[in-house]
Amino acid sequence: MRIFLIALLFGCLLHSIAYGAAGANWTKAGTPTWEARAWSTSVVFNNKLWVMGGLGTVGYNDVWSSNNGENWTKVAPTSPIWSKRYGHTSVVFNNKMWVMGGKGGGSSSYKDVWSSSDGANWKLEASAPGWSIRSGHSSVVFNNKMWVMGGGDTAVGFHRDVWSSSDGANWTLEASAPGWSIRSEHSSVVFNNKMWVMGGYYNPGMSPDFHRDVWSSSNGKKWDKITASAPWLGKFQHAAMVFDNKMWVMGGSGSGGPTNEVWSSSNGATWISATAAPPKWAKRRAHTAEVFGNRLWVMGGWSASATPFQDVWYSLSDIWNP
């Protein structure tokens, strides 16, 4: 009986240590071979992590993949590839990776749409998709369509429009005034059969407006405000993911500069800070995040001094998979 009680107590202790660690405990996965960068994109495709493009000391249009987050391989293009860019978006749709929009080395942004089934051979699907040139937009895959939301460019202005496409070539304007205000460098996820838009900023007259509102929609046309003031700081250039049956918001920058705060929510209205102390990864903005191998990943970004990071971090799931 005594042995049984000791075993039971030990099991409970292990349980208390293992659970509640998601988003709080982070491990560095080494230094990747891709150059330090921010404003890149990432996806999970064919059982690999992928990082594409971005901006560091120079702009990039390279493609990197990894099957473990530690060892990275540069994918050599076998066809013309999209030009160097940052602030673009990437999704996985119809067994392909997609790259949309972004900003290049010049003064204006792009509005092109590219796809690839292997990261090496790329096809231009649309040079004039309907939506205007933009960077800092967000993209998700929902209801068998790709979606592009918000963003913009100083040359043509910024937006709050919502577009969808079932093939990447033909795009439909779903909403020109969805309820949420004009914004750029916000985040979007798909959670509980809805699309979500969170945070971002707008800079009219050089007076930045950093948002901390949360919106959701089941069709892209009608949007519901879930909260006007989430407890995380008003911010832009943050990362958002769905992990352990929750939405997560990580890092980003607001009026006080970059942060490394980590928040989660199961409903978009109530948010819980995942960290009693700041995570091991430094304060940052314009980083990227993914869920891969039952882990939550954070990669790259800008520091408070606008120095690009060359690092990869992960946090383990609280949900045990035998």
From TrEMBL:
<dbReference type="Pfam" id="PF24681">
    <property type="entry name" value="Kelch_KLHDC2_KLHL20_DRC7"/>
</dbReference>
<keyword id="KW-0677">Repeat</keyword>
<keyword id="KW-0880">Kelch repeat</keyword>
<protein>
    <recommendedName>
        <fullName>Galactose oxidase</fullName>
    </recommendedName>
</protein>
<dbReference type="InterPro" id="IPR015915">
    <property type="entry name" value="Kelch-typ_b-propeller"/>
</dbReference>
<dbReference type="InterPro" id="IPR051568">
    <property type="entry name" value="LZTR1/Attractin"/>
</dbReference>
<dbReference type="InterPro" id="IPR011043">
    <property type="entry name" value="Gal_Oxase/kelch_b-propeller"/>
</dbReference>
<keyword id="KW-0732">Signal</keyword>
<feature type="signal peptide">
    <location>
        <begin position="1"/>
        <end position="20"/>
    </location>
</feature>
